[in-house]
Design goal:
The chain is built from 16 helices and no strands. The protein has about 300 residues and is an all-alpha fold.
C-alpha cells in the first residue's frame, strides 16, 4: 500500500519540463533540417564518386554555401549573361558552317605548318651546300602552301572569334560558374550516377530522420507531439463512445497498461478522491451488496447446524 501511495503521489502532477522539451524539439528540427540540407547538397554536388557525395552530405552547410554563392552570382549578373547568350546566338554559326570553318581552318594551318617546316629544312640544306636537297624542300613548301582563299578564310575566322571573345570578355561574366550548377544536377541524375546519388540522399534522410526522432523521443519522453496530441484530443471529444469501447486499441497496449495501473492505484489509495460522486456511490453500493451476500451466505450453515443440534 505504501508503495502504491508513493507511486501515485509522485506521478500525481508530472513536471512540465519546458527546458527538456525545448531542447529536444530544437535538436529534432535541427537534425532533420541538416538531413534535408545534406540531401540537397548531394543533388547539387559536383563529385563523381559515392565517397565524394558522402563528403558533400557530411559537409552540407559549406557545400550549400558554395552553391548559394554560385546562384547569387548568376542572379546578380542575369542581365549580362542574357546579353552574352543573345550575342552568341545571333553571331555564332550553325553546325554545318562551324564544321566547314573548322575543316578549312585546320587545312590552312596544316599547310602553313608544312611550308615553314620545309623552308627550315631547305635553309639547313643550303647551309650544308646541298642545293639539290634545298630545292626539293622548297618545292614541297610551294606545293603545301595554302591558297589565298584559305588564308583569307583563316583571317576572317580569327577576326570573328577575336571580336566574339572581346565582346564576351567585356561583360566580365564567368559563364562556367553560371552553368556549373545545372551541369552538376544533370550529371548527378544521369543513368551512370543516379543510383549513387539517390542512395546517398536516402541514407542522409533516413539517418537524419532516425536521429531526429530519437531526440524528439528523449525531449518528450515518448509522448506524441503537439499535432498528434491535438488530433487525438479532438478524436476523443468527437468520438467518446468509440474511444470508451476501444480504449486499449486507441492508446496502445503498453500505454493502456500503465494508465490502468495508475487508475487502480488511485482507487486503492483513496477511492473517494479518485472517483466522481456517482461512481463512488455505485462502488459503495457494490461493496454493500457483496457484504450482504457474504453475510447471508455465512448465516445459512449456522442455522442448519443449530437446528440439527436441537433435534
Amino acid at each position: 500500500m505504501e508503495a502504491v501511495q508513493k507511486r501515485v503521489s509522485v506521478h500525481r502532477r508530472p513536471p512540465v519540463e519546458p527546458g527538456r522539451r525545448i531542447i529536444g524539439t530544437l535538436l529534432e528540427l535541427g537534425i532533420k533540417a541538416y538531413g534535408t540540407a545534406a540531401a540537397v547538397s548531394v543533388a547539387l554536388s559536383d563529385a563523381e564518386t559515392v565517397g565524394g557525395k558522402l563528403t558533400d552530405a557530411v559537409t552540407a552547410v559549406p557545400s550549400l554555401m558554395e552553391r548559394y554563392r554560385q546562384a547569387k552570382y548568376a542572379f546578380d549578373h542575369a542581365e549580362e549573361i542574357q546579353a552574352a547568350l543573345d550575342y552568341v546566338h545571333r553571331h555564332a554559326p550553325d553546325s554545318r558552317q562551324l564544321e566547314t570553318a573548322v575543316r578549312g581552318t585546320y587545312q590552312a594551318l596544316q599547310g602553313v605548318k608544312t611550308v615553314f617546316g620545309e623552308l627550315g629544312q631547305a635553309k639547313e640544306a643550303l647551309g650544308d651546300l646541298s642545293l639539290a636537297e634545298a630545292f626539293e624542300h622548297i618545292g614541297r613548301a610551294w606545293t603545301a602552301m595554302p591558297d589565298l582563299g584559305s588564308i583569307a578564310h583563316l583571317a576572317e575566322v580569327a577576326q570573328n572569334v577575336t571580336s566574339l571573345l572581346i565582346y564576351l570578355n567585356s561583360f566580365e561574366v564567368d559563364l562556367l560558374a553560371f552553368y556549373q550548377g545545372m551541369l552538376s544536377v544533370a550529371d548527378n541524375f544521369a543513368h551512370d550516377e543516379i543510383a549513387g546519388t539517390l542512395g546517398v540522399m536516402g541514407v542522409a534522410l533516413v539517418i537524419a530522420f532516425a536521429l531526429g526522432m530519437g531526440a524528439g523521443f528523449w525531449g518528450r519522453r515518448g509522448r506524441p507531439g503537439i499535432i498528434v496530441s491535438t488530433m487525438q484530443g479532438w478524436g476523443a471529444r468527437l468520438f467518446p463512445d468509440w474511444y470508451a469501447r476501444h480504449l486499449e486499441g486507441a492508446l496502445g497496449r503498453s500505454l493502456y497498461a500503465v494508465a490502468r495501473e495508475r487508475i487502480q492505484g488511485d482507487i486503492v489509495v483513496d477511492p473517494e478522491q479518485a472517483l466522481d460522486p456517482d461512481a463512488y456511490q455505485k462502488l459503495e453500493q457494490y461493496f454493500e451488496r457483496r457484504l450482504s451476500e457474504k453475510t447471508e451466505g455465512d448465516d445459512v450453515p449456522r442455522q442448519g447446524v443449530s437446528s440439527s443440534s436441537r433435534g
